[in-house]
Amino acid sequence: MHHVEQKCVPLFGATSKSHIPVGDSETKDTLMYFFRGVVSLAQVYYKDDLKKGIPIRAVFITSGNFWDDSLAALEKLSWSKLKSSKMEISYARDGLLRLLEINSYNKEKNIIKKYFK
Questions:
Q1: Rounded CA gap, 45 and 52, in Å?
Q2: Beta carbons within 8 Å of 106's beta carbon, 6+ residues apart
Q3: Distance (Å, rounded) from C-alpha 35 to C-alpha 20?
Q4: Rounded to whole angstroms, how far apart are CA atoms 28 and 24?
Q5: What is the C-alpha separation between 77 and 89, in angstroms, rounded?
Q6: Do residues 56 and 50 touch, judged by C-beta distance below 8 A?
Q7: pTM for the whole thing?
Q8: Per-residue 3-state assignment (H helix, E strand, C coil) for 51-109
Q9: What does the pLDDT profile of the chain (117 residues) look like in tens digits?
């Protein structure tokens, strides 16, 4: 069965020593700003797709890492309707590099390793 869904995916470029905070819907560069703010905007933008039954899903990708409280928030979100049927709710550095390698995006993987140390 083919699942059609709109995916809202930010790629947050950061070094391996950077950590993404949970934050809130008002604070930029945080998980909750994306999941509550940006996803809400996507729901407005894709309102016609929503009417057709095409859901909006969210995936937060970073070349950095997440704080423990961010990981706890992501765990809760992974059980929500925002989780994609084909992807995880998030990918931090190691998971992103594995995802790129599995899908033969070696050039992109090497760029991240070189420029986002």
A1: 14
A2: 100
A3: 13
A4: 8
A5: 7
A6: yes
A7: 0.87
A8: HCCCCEEECEEECCEECHHHHHHHHHHCCCCCCCCCCCCEECHHHHHHHHHHCCCHHHH
A9: 447 899 888 888 899 999 999 999 899 889 999 998 888 899 999 999 999 999 999 999 999 999 999 999 999 999 999 999 999 999 999 999 999 999 999 999 999 999 998
Distance CA 22, CA 3 (A): 29
> How is residue 35 written in tokens?
């999941």
Do the Cβ atoms of 60 and 13 come closer than 8 Å? no
Please spell the DSSP secondary structure of 20-46, one letter per residue: E----TTSTTSHHIIIIIIHHHHHHHT
Q: How far, CA to CA in Å, does 28 sit from each of 24, 38, 65, 91?
A: 8, 10, 16, 19
User: Could you tell me the two tokens for 87?
Assistant: 């992807």
- Amino acid 27 reads T
